[in-house]
Structure formats: structure tokens, C-alpha cells
Amino acid sequence: MMLRDGESAMDAAQRPGSLPAGGIEAASAPARPRKIIHIDMDAFFASVEQRDDPSLRGRPVAVGGSSQRGVVAAASYEARVFGVRSAMPSVTARRRCPELVFVKPRFEVYKAVSAEIRAIFAEHTPIIEPLSLDEAYLDVTENLQDIPSATAIAEAIRQRIREVTGLTASAGVSYNKFLAKLASDHRKPDGLFVIPPAMGAAFVEDLPVGRFHGIGPATAAKMERLGLQTGRDLRAKSLPFLQERFGKAGPYYYWISRGIDERPVRANRIRKSVGAENTFSEDLFAFEAMASALQPILDKVWRHCETSGLRGRTVTLKVKFADFQQITRSQSVPLAVSNRAELERLGLGLLQPLMPVAKGVRLLGITLSALADAQAETPALQFSLPL
Q1: How many CB atoms are closer than 10 A to CB 305?
Q2: At which residues is there a site annotated Substrate discrimination (predicted)?
Q3: Burial class (CB within 10 angstroms; exposed 0-12, middle 13-18, buried 19+) of 375
Q4: What is the pLDDT of residues 257-267, one digit of tens each?
Q5: Are 100 and 94 in contact, with CB atoms under 8 Å apart?
Q6: What is the C-alpha separation between 268 and 265, in angstroms, rounded?
Q7: pTM (2 decimals)?
Q8: Which of 9, 44, 198, 376 has the highest count of CB atoms within 10 angstroms of its CB?
Q9: How far apart are CA 119 and CA 21, in angstroms?
Q10: What are the C-alpha distances in Å from 364 to residues 259, 318, 335?
């Protein structure tokens, strides 16, 4: 294949007529392959703190509360060496890294830096799908600067982010969202990786299923029990097999195991809800045990509210029992939930009337909906945050 001036192998492979003909992949591929970039800031919150306070540079830093019930919102790479991760209880993080420095979150600062980064994205494409303050998908199939190479655009964006913010970003470039996200994780921190069409299916084959975006710990454990450890294992199963065992998610798993993901990059998606849930290794029966199990779930939901500036008026409790029966209970309030304590009060208020339970509880979840910007009087367009 001949490369045009300034064009990478991936870009050349995505020119019309460059994909191999025949087979299920070719039949399911878009008529014109997309050029997708996934940008992910490196340890964003912690890196902002280290940038603004030179005394923190080179030290293990955790952004979050240091109290007994505190949770790590972000960890620097120096802290990650010790196994400190986001969403980890602060007491656990301190135990793993006694020298850990806790810094209170400054969400207004992070939002301002995120706006600077988003403005850089907008110099290249209007098709931007932010996932959170620190990551986004960009569709650069057509781009504002007429740069033929998606790889060159990704490198230009990374360089511009460094110049404007003093921070580093990792980028993944591919022909779909699933692979672009995998690619951005591949060379972190401060890396760039490209997965061209000819490499997509093979790249997925040897990856553990737990690395797949959209497969959480509970699903990964279920796949492990079914003998599905890698993308190759997943690809060996039929669509009916996966649908029977994973329901509506089955087709998604079927196609991504083949390197296929036709989801478009969606700009300005309306965020309808923020939620989190957890499946327990042992069924719960007592209210006290369930209330305790809800704490990290509430922490995760409220952390996303703080990060995004979103607030909501409707709290929904999800309960799944040992026999897989599932129920939900909701309550709406006149004004948006303004703090975590209120979210906890409403969540536990929905749980209490269900007591005592006749059968064990295997999953609990909390969702906050009827969202609006915390500083707005009416609901606003918001970007989706994955949980």
C-alpha cells in the first residue's frame, strides 16, 4: 500500500476501497471507515495539583478525603506504584502508601482546565463526545484543518495540551470507539498508539476480557466462569450463546471481540442520569450490612456529581435478589440533592421499607436523575460520565 504525504498506515488503510473484502467484518463495517481519537488526560486531578504546587511533584499524591470514610478520587502515578487507585477507601490507600499526600479536590479548577482542553479539541473537529472532565472521543474523519492523518491530529492535540496547560495526555487512534479507547490505555502515560483496521481483530484476541471497555468486574468474573478469558475465547462463541447468557449486551460483546464497533461519536449528549451499582460476593440480609454496602456506591455517584457539576431531583434504589428478581424504588424531591448526606438519607429511606427481606440481596444500586447543572435554574445539556 502506498502512503500519501503525511499519512500513516492506519490513515492509508482507511481510504475508501482499502479494507479487505469478504467476511463478517467487511459486511458489518461502515461504508466509509471513521477516524476516531480517544484522548485521556494522565492522572488528571492529581497532575493539576502537582502542576500548581511544585512541592507535590515526584511525590505520591491522592486527591480526595483523608478521613475514615474518605475515598480517593484520583491518584498520581507515583501513588499508583503502591497500588493506590481511584475509588479506593482512603484508609486502604494510606495503608498501602504511608507517605501518601492527600489533597482536597478543587473541582472548579479541574473544570476550568477541562474547558481549555475542550477548546483545543474544537480547533480540529466539532464532533466531540466528552466522557468526563479528563477524556473524550473525537471524530476526525473530516476535520477543520484538513489534516489527512488522524495520527498527526492526535499528536498535534497532545502537544497543544502540553503547551496550554502544562499537562500530558495519552491518545489512541483507530477506526472505532472501542479500539481507540483501548489504544489510549496502551502507552500511558504521555503516549500515543494507533490500531489500524488490519490490526484491529488481532489486537483484541489476546486481551483479557477485563480490559474491554463495557465489561466490569462482575461480568468479567461471569465470563471467567464460562471459560471466556480473552477476546479469542469470546470470539469463539456464537451470537445466540452470548445473547442467552448476557442478554442485550451479548451482541456488543460478539462484535467487539471481532474489533467491530459501529457506535458513532455523539456530540453534546444529554446526560439523563448518574448511577452506580455493585454485585456482592455473598448475599446480604441485614439492613446494617446493606447500608454499609451502599456507602461506596453513594461515594461513586456523588463523586461524579461533584466532578460534572450535575445535581438531580430523583433518587432511585435498585435491588436485585438472589433469585435474580429485580425491583426499583424512587423518590423525587422539589429541589436538587445538594450534598452526599442528603443522597444517603434518601437512598437509605428507600431501602428501609423493604426490610426485612425474605431472600438475600445480591446487588444494590443508586441512580440520580432529573439532572441539571448545579449553577443553572433549568436542565442543561450535559456530557455523559461513565461509572
Answers
A1: 24
A2: 45
A3: exposed
A4: 999 999 999 88
A5: yes
A6: 10
A7: 0.69
A8: 44
A9: 39
A10: 32, 6, 25
Per-residue pLDDT tens over the stretch 316-363? 999 999 988 999 999 999 989 989 999 999 999 999 999 999 999 999
Nearest to 361 by CA among 316, 311, 294, 308: 294
Q: How far, in Å, are 210, 293, 374 from residue 222 at the CA level?
A: 11, 21, 38
Chain-centre distance for alpha carbon 178: 11
DSSP-derived secondary structure for 132-180? ETTEEEEE-SS-TT--S-HHHHHHHHHHHHHHHHS--EEEEEESSHHHH
299 annotated among ligand-binding-site residues: no
Match 450535559 to its residue by C-alpha cell: 382
Q: Is the CB of residue 195 less than 8 Å from the CB of residue 176? A: no
> pLDDT tens across 143-171, in order?
999 999 999 999 999 999 999 999 999 99
**Distance (Å, rounded) from C-alpha 213 to C-alpha 177?**
10
Give the domains, in start order, of the chain with CATH numbers. Answer: 30-175+183-189 (3.30.70.270), 206-256 (1.10.150.20), 273-373 (3.30.1490.100)
Task: Given the residues 78, 129, 135, 277, select the one marked as catalytic.
Answer: 135
Instruction: Name residue, grid cell 468479567.
Output: 220
Round to whole Å and give the CA distance between 123 and 272.
Answer: 28
